[in-house]
Amino acid sequence: MSMRGEQARAALQEIFMAGVASADPLTVLAAHLPSPPANGRVVVVGAGKSAATMARAVEIAWPDVPLTGVVVTRYGHAVPTDRIEVLEASHPVPDEASEAAGRRILQAVSGLTADDLVLALISGGGSALMTVPAPGLTLDDKKAVNRLLLDSGAGINEMNMVRRRLSAVKGGRLAAAAHPARLVTLAISDVPGDDPRAIASGPTVPDVGDDAALAALVSRLEDKLPERVVRLLKAERPAVPEGAPDFRLIATPAMALEAAADKARALGFVPLILGDALEGESRELGRVLAGIALSARHHGHPVKGPAVLLSGGETTVTIGSTAPGRGGRNTECLLAMALALKGEAGIFAVSGDTDGIDGTEDAAGAMIAPDTLARAAAAGFEPASILAGHDSYSLFAAIGDLVVTGPTLTNVNDLRAILVDG
């Protein structure tokens, strides 16, 4: 099977969007709803990039159930709702609207009874969007810590360990505020391993474990953190009610990869899922994936073409002392992959964030092809220097290879697909 460039690009676009579509709350949420209470109230709260769409999905599924509540999503991610209020706030660094939203959500679940149902709609991005500083901290403290973590190359699990400890709403504290009402969480996972504590920093699940890992992270960053933050991170974990939370995953990275694999199969490719939780430096993963693609191309291992290698997870980009250019983890991974492939024929790839935003720019990610480096050079770019300066977005924008979806209103982490022609 030999494909032209435009055919390969069209196939990769379809495969990527199939993964995104599998996590659409409007199609997947209703099947996971509990039975509404016989006598009590239903209060809907939530936070994340998908929170507004999830709220609308609840309204559609329960047209005759009286609903109240409030959710918060990222600026530009709101959708019209009838009975559940939608707020917007900042991501990835919280702002004053994030704190106001967090306090509104805590207020919405206060004073309930055991007859009431709290439906918590949690998705990626909720950590920044629903922010209530722990006693003794300010929003400025949390902003500074967020920026430090983002620039340090800390993994998402490390960031969430810190966020849980510095919050009055995360780490199970929303669940504590809702007690004694019945609490059911519907979650869309954007974290490797789908750990409920890590999705939006676990507002409805107990914060247990991780003491040793947190201590190691604090030791590494202690000289850069405010003293009051260090004291709180070293203090004993605040007690929250324990138990077996009713936590339901409605969409995950693994589900998205299965949907992408189904689409690849329908298009005539052999899909191979490499994993849903690949982490590490973006550029290093790009080099590794290039090596796997070359092995498949030349030796038929781990799969013989025509094939599509699929992977998910969330990589990191560690920023050095030089001011970075415009880039994101997906475009950086792809540029490193292109450099390692050196124009190898028959290999194409797409990498994008399923929420539609790769970092802070307006693209989900990008695509590469055998002629990517040549076209970049013709446009006046030196790809290796661009990679070193974390300016991959600018390169892909200039050669027209960005993948622009707009906000997808869901988020199951990054999705990468590498097409290896036969």
TrEMBL record:
Coiled-coil boundaries: none
Gene3D superfamilies listed in its UniProt record: Glycerate kinase, MOFRL-like N-terminal domain, MOFRL domain
Domain MOFRL: 308-414
Domain MOFRL-associated as annotated: residue spans: 12-234
InterPro entries according to UniProt: GK-like_C_sf, GK_N_sf, MOFRL, MOFRL_assoc_dom, MOFRL_protein
A Pfam family hit: MOFRL
Lineage, opening ranks: Bacteria, Pseudomonadati, Pseudomonadota, Alphaproteobacteria, Hyphomicrobiales
Protein name in the entry: Hydroxypyruvate reductase
PANTHER family reported in the protein's UniProt record: GLYCERATE KINASE
The organism of origin for this protein: Aureimonas altamirensis DSM 21988
